[in-house]
Amino acid sequence: MNTDTQNAYRSLASHFYATHLPDIPLSELNELNVIGALLRAAPGYRPDYFRRLRNALALDQKLKGKFWIAQEINRTLNPVTVLGLPRKRKPVRRQRISDEDFGRWVNGLLADEMPVEAGALMLISMTGARPCELAGITVDGLRIKIQGAKHSHGGLRGADRELEASQEFCDLVRNALEAFHKDYRSLDSMRMAIHEVAKKVFPRGRTPSMYTLRHQFGANLKASGMSRVQMAYVMGHQATDSIGRYGDKRFGRAEAVQVRPAKDADLSAIRTTHAAYARARSKALQVTQ
Predict the structure, then answer these.
(1) Do residues 149 and 133 lie in contact, with contact meaning Cβ atoms separated by under 8 Å?
(2) Which ranges of 112-186 would DSSP assign to H, the alpha helix?
(3) Among 257, 105, 116, 240, which residue's Cα sits nearest to residue 187?
(4) Residues ≥6 apart with Cβ < 8 Å to 287
(5) Residue 101 in contact with residue 113, Cβ under 8 Å?
(6) Are 183 and 169 in contact (CB under 8 A)?
(7) Minimum mean pLDDT range among 16-30, 77-91, 248-262
(8) For 39, what's the count of Cα atoms within 13 Å in the CB-facing half-sphere?
(9) Which residues pair with 137 in a beta bridge?
(10) Rg (CA), the chain
(11) Per-residue model confidence as pLDDT tens digits over 165-180
(12) DSSP sequence for 48-87
């Protein structure tokens, strides 16, 4: 397990202690306290989050030298899945945000002295990068390089990309990177901080998240007139159908897209898989038979 993952897990564990066991000093926690709180909280979590939280708590206790507690936490089963209780539904997340609301959100973070989190939002909004890719963004001249962070499924997801933009826009990205790198924050701690500020700024309706910005970026790309292959490249996809799950063209703003694939970018690895292509290919096969 790398250092970033360890830090993220320990941050998650600390947040759990603070919210579910606030009256017990950390030095006095035992397996009954921690496991009891975890079991009581389980119905409010989706199974994958319960599993992640359990791993985080076990790792935190192990790193504190409390191996017995870590072992017992690891053995704890999710009562929701064991007893067949109703599972928490995946929330319907907000997928679009106006420029005005985005400005209010960033200003809310800056007012709370959170430049790292504000920089993260700016980077996602400008480049469409995944939150987990932010640390791998660099700017070289008029090029913005993003290291794909989801290389999985045999390399079929999470492509690296090189984007081009104007000098003015690249300078804005550099400024956002400078803010983002002011201090180290785990992705989980950033998510929690951003969420808390978003709840204050938007007390009514669905709260936006970093996920919202990537969806809005996808909507903006659809309105920009780029080809499906170009959109897939900019988003870090390796198939043209993936963009279909991001944003709604009706709410896109073409003028917001200031990046494009670099002139020498290799787009040949992107697979054409969207529905229109699939239908055309099917008809062609029928004709030749």
Answers:
(1) yes
(2) 115-127, 167-180
(3) 116
(4) none
(5) no
(6) no
(7) 77-91
(8) 15
(9) 146
(10) 22
(11) 999 999 999 999 999 9
(12) HHHHHHHHHHHHHHHHTT-HHHHHHHHT---HHHHTTPPP
